[in-house]
Amino acid sequence: MTNRRLGSTDLEIAPLVLGGNVFGWTADRDASFAVLDAFVAGGGTMIDTADVYSAWVPGHKGGESETMIGEWLKVSGQRDAVQIATKVGMLPGEGGEKLAPARIAAACEASLKRLGTDRIDLYFAHQDDDDTPQDAALEAFGRLVDAGKVRVIGASNFHAARLKSANDAAKAAGMPRYHVLQPEYNLVSRHKFEGELQDYCVIENIGVVPYYGLASGFLTGKYRTRDDLSKSVRGGRMGDLLEGEGKAVLDAMDSVAAETGATLAQIALAWLIAQPGVTAPIASATSAKQIEELLPAMTLDLSDDQLARLTDAGA
């Protein structure tokens, strides 16, 4: 396995990013530590989290995932072996909401404290903010970069026009630009990235780390009939996929699985890894066993014909 350079940054990462949204939520301390240990042992490098994880859970207030990762970093001694990505913009608190400059500053300090580290390798604007001038948000991020608290900044859930205007403003003012994009992207959800946004990222050498790489479990093959929708709390969202292009995609994946011996999850992630502009997809796991299944995606080499059949099935 060869690590990949993340866009035009000096970060080199493994071609699979570990999603941290489950830590402190559906994965307790023992499970979280086991997942993190297995990921690093298997060659993984970047761990993705956010200050808002998991504020949606009753009794949680946000920061649970960062706190869990911070505890693991302290116990494992692996801080210099991994890159930490986290986000600001969805959890309101000190300094305001979204990308208000005072909120960015305060949220960064809170994240650093929970993570138990002096630096964030990749700091994302978790969502766009129409109420904050883009240059004001970029200035706030720039102060964090100048202070050595953040190495690289990125944008999540930005449309092409807004990402371009932000980076144009950064260039004009000599401020750090968004070097990384985190969009929703997978075999059955392609419209939010493909087209203008993907083209812009390729031209500008912006590293892309997509989330929902497994479409909330649909691309593992777990949901194949209406009866399967009751298998988990996420099942209710899968009906539209089954009635749309989902079945054709699963059929194509089954064919590739028969040819390669790979699992559907590995195939879904390998397809993403092979897409123009994509550096590494994000996937989460609640057990070391799940991680061990996902890791081979980093070295699964699908043929041009297999990639084309998968792409055509979801078109």
Please summarize what this structure is.
The chain contains eleven helices and ten strands. It is an alpha/beta fold and 315 residues long. Strand 3 (17-19), helix 1 (29-41) and strand 4 form a beta-alpha-beta unit.
Can you offer a commentary on this structure?
- With 315 residues, the chain is an alpha/beta fold.
- It is 39% helix and 12% strand.
- It contains eleven helices and ten strands.
- An eight-stranded parallel β-sheet has the order 9-8-7-6-5-4-3-10, covered by helices on one side. A two-stranded antiparallel sheet has the order 1-2.
- Helix 3 (101-115) packs parallel to helix 4 and helix 8 runs antiparallel to helix 11 (304-313).
- The radius of gyration is 19 Å and the shape is globular.
Characteristics:
globular; alpha/beta; 11 helices; 315 residues; two-stranded antiparallel sheet; eight-stranded parallel β-sheet
Helix content: 25-40%
Kindly report how far apart the N and C termini lie: 30 Å
Within the largest sheet, what's the order of strands?
9-8-7-6-5-4-3-10
Main sheet characteristics: 8 strands, parallel
Kindly report the average pLDDT value. Answer: 95
